[in-house]
Write a structure and sequence with these properties.
The protein has no helices and 17 strands.
Length: 265
């Protein structure tokens, strides 16, 4: 499924700021002695008081800024490549009938994310966003997120083992909590038709929005157009119009708004 488009126009809550971290070059917090994923790994957020085998405490560990790489924030990590664990408390869950998504705008390079000790997503790639819905994992209080980020160079990774640039590790872009209604506008596209410059065409995709009406508004062109989605929440449109072309001398811009009952973008 496509990522939620235009997240910063959805009044997201940024989780930027101080995150606790633990350096883990041997991946002790992820693998057991046999090399299998450890069910009592650091993602559980246990302390020595919680379990006899826990020899860490996120809340007593140092902090660094997110977004930002770890190599330039902490002098001892300048040449570090490997795994680093991040921890941050999350806000209390809101009982409002809505949905909550967690979005990492980028982390370098391989990421695993847990919410309240439940794995919610894995992602490989240092420059692309990834997100998932987390509302069902949230509690009234005491919520937290743990992210395991590894920037080790791999033969089939970017960069590869032998490269000419440094692979800075960390959560390098913003982390967002995005709240939506049950049915919302997930994706959309609107452009001048490449084959007919007197027509605007595009699509809109709703999440949980089968057979719903979507209003497309372009006030500058006097357009109010109704789109009806199909059984998959997808709808296309093609509208005759003659917009002014953008140029340095005539920087014409048009506000485009899609809206349904309870959501607009």
């Amino acid at each position: 499924m496509n990522l939620i488009q235009n997240p910063y126009n959805r009044n997201p809550q940024s989780l930027a700021g101080d995150w606790h971290y633990i350096i883990d070059p041997y991946e002790t917090g992820f693998y057991d002695l046999h090399g299998d994923e450890n069910p009592f790994g650091y993602f559980r957020n246990l302390t020595p008081d919680d379990h006899w085998a826990s020899e860490y405490s996120f809340k007593q560990s140092p902090t660094m800024k997110v977004p930002g790489d770890w190599n330039t924030q902490e002098p001892t990590l300048l040449w570090y490549e490997g795994t680093l664990w991040y921890f941050r408390e999350l806000p209390d869950a809101e009982v409002d009938g809505g949905r909550t998504f967690l979005r990492f705008c980028a982390a370098n390079y391989h990421s695993i994310v847990w919410v309240n000790a439940i794995e919610v997503m894995r992602h490989t790639g240092g420059f692309t966003p990834f997100e998932t819905e987390i509302g069902s994992h949230l509690k009234p209080t005491g919520n937290f997120v743990v992210a395991k980020i590894n920037d080790e160079r791999l033969k089939d990774g970017v960069p590869t083992r032998n490269t000419d640039w440094w692979n800075y590790g960390g959560i390098t872009r913003d982390v967002l909590l995005i709240k939506t209604p049950q049915s919302f506008i997930r994706d959309y596209f609107c452009q001048l038709d490449p084959e007919d410059d007197r027509q605007i065409k595009g699509f809109v995709e709703l999440d949980n929005g089968a057979n719903k009406d979507v209003n497309l508004s372009i006030p500058g062109l006097g357009i109010e157009h109704l789109i009806t989605t199909d059984s998959h929440g997808f709808g296309q449109f093609a509208i005759k119009a003659e917009p002014d072309r953008w140029s340095p001398e005539n920087a014409a811009l048009y506000e485009v708004r899609f809206s349904i009952d309870g959501d607009s973008i």
